[in-house]
Amino acid sequence: MATDHLDWPFFDDEHRKMAAALNDWAAEHLGHAADTDIDGRCRRLVRDLGDAGWLRYCVAGTAFGGHSDRIDTRALCLAREILADHDALADFAFAMQGLGSGAISLAGTDEQKRRYLPLVATGAAIAAFALSEDDAGSDAAALSCTARADGDTYVLDGTKTWISNGGIADFYVVLARTGEAAGARGISAFLVDADTQGLHIADRIDVISPHPLARLHFEACRVPATARLGDAGAGFSLAMRTLDIFRTSVAAAAVGFARRAMAEALARATSRQMFGGVLADFQLTRAELAQMATTIDATALLTYRAAWQRDQGRSVTREAAMAKMAATEGAQRVIDAAVQMWGALGVVREQPVERLYRDIRALRIYEGATEVQQLIIARELLRSPDPT
After folding, report:
1. Which residues contact residue 68 at a Cβ distance below 8 angstroms, ignoring those fewer than 6 apart?
2. What is the pLDDT of residues 154-199, one digit of tens each?
3. How far apart (Å, rounded) are the C-alpha atoms in residues 256 and 385?
């Protein structure tokens, strides 16, 4: 993994030490395995990351197993960049522990935090975030899953889809319509244990970069009122605050994928024999390598600006959207160029660049597609009195 960017002023010595230690651990313990049991491997990765102490960066509160009292966004992003460079499924396992429990860190009661966060931080429980529906993906406020108050309980009915860790999670943070107001202001968040009666795994979903993914169905699924996260009707705002953190980390994962693709491209360009020399001798190749390197640095700068800004307690809605859009789109271009340099070998199943080509594609969609990021950026620019 390239480390020059660790000298940037966004980071302090603790971040640099963490990054070096995680990179060493990843080099020793990770590496893509052609394992058909994706569920089993994901469970093992969560346990291994928890045992090694890395999942502490996913939760807030030292009293609840976290590394610090607030989520350190820069550390979170460094971790995702490093893990993505080594193993996409390890990055996924790490990220989902954070996304799946982020709402608890932000708005959970002390009792909720004591019950769930230590299990997340040690890898003893797998977390999931259930927001998307068939007709409420990019337009998340249009969700139709309901939670009806009934005495000291809520009854959930409806369906969620594209739920990462669906089928292996021990608990879900579920967004459902409680009806306090129309649209986004009538949605609340709930903690639902996987074994709760009325929660069913309707389907498992197979995608080009395999990871646990499912459609959930709630049918008269009853949870105690104490399972609600935050205030009634404030769930959508809580979901967006959670995404502001983890959207930036998606950008960091994309940077990690791009860095690995760059390393693979350099290795191939300097060793592939062609016309009496090597691929790197040609000006076309050098120009492409220059563009790839520039794209990586530019998107890393956007990513760590957003992470640093959030850690200063400032709003990052616009900056996180910029980072996510630029990094995922840029990584797609970098990886595509790496595949091209590898030629026919670049599309052979399980070659590193072929895996990267599959791994990056979903990042341009999940946690807000590129087009949605464009809308967010424009909205924030138009809202601001000084768009510069």
Report:
1. 60, 62
2. 999 999 999 999 999 999 999 999 988 888 889 999 999 999 999 9
3. 35
DSSP symbols for 261-290:
HHHHHHHHHTT-EETTEEGGGSHHHHHHHH
> Both ends of the chain: CA-CA distance in Å?
34
pLDDT of residue 350: 83
Q: Which residues pair with 200 in a beta bridge?
A: 217
- Best CA proximity match to 153, nearest among 214, 224, 73, 92: 224
CB-based contact 134:162 (threshold 8 Å): no
Distance (Å) of CA 124 to CA 47, 89, 119, 171, 327:
7, 18, 5, 12, 32
State the catalytic residue, choosing from 133, 367, 371, 380: 367
Average pLDDT on 45-57 reads 97
pLDDT digits (tens, 9 = 90+) for 90-112: 999 999 999 999 999 999 999 99
Grouping H, G, I as helix, E, B as strand and the rest as coil, residue 367 is coil
Q: Which amino acid is at 348?
A: V
Q: Give the residue, 387 or 152, on which the prediction is more confident.
A: 152
pTM of the complete model: 0.93
Task: For residues 192 and 194, give the distance between their C-alpha atoms in angstroms, rounded to a whole number.
Answer: 6
CA pair distance 286, 265, nearest whole angstrom: 11
Residue 367 appears among annotated catalytic residues: yes
Render pLDDT for 142-157 as a digit per residue (tens, 0 to 9): 899 999 999 999 999 9
Contact status, residue 155 vs residue 120, Cβ threshold 8 Å: no
Contact between 76 and 15 (Cβ < 8 Å): no
- Residue 223 CA to residue 280 CA, distance in Å, equals 61
Does residue 387 carry a pLDDT above 60? Answer: no
Q: What is the DSSP secondary-structure string of 194-213?
A: TT-TTEEEEEE---SS---E
Phi, psi of 213 (to 5 degrees): -150, 135
Structure-token pair, residue 75: 């550390």
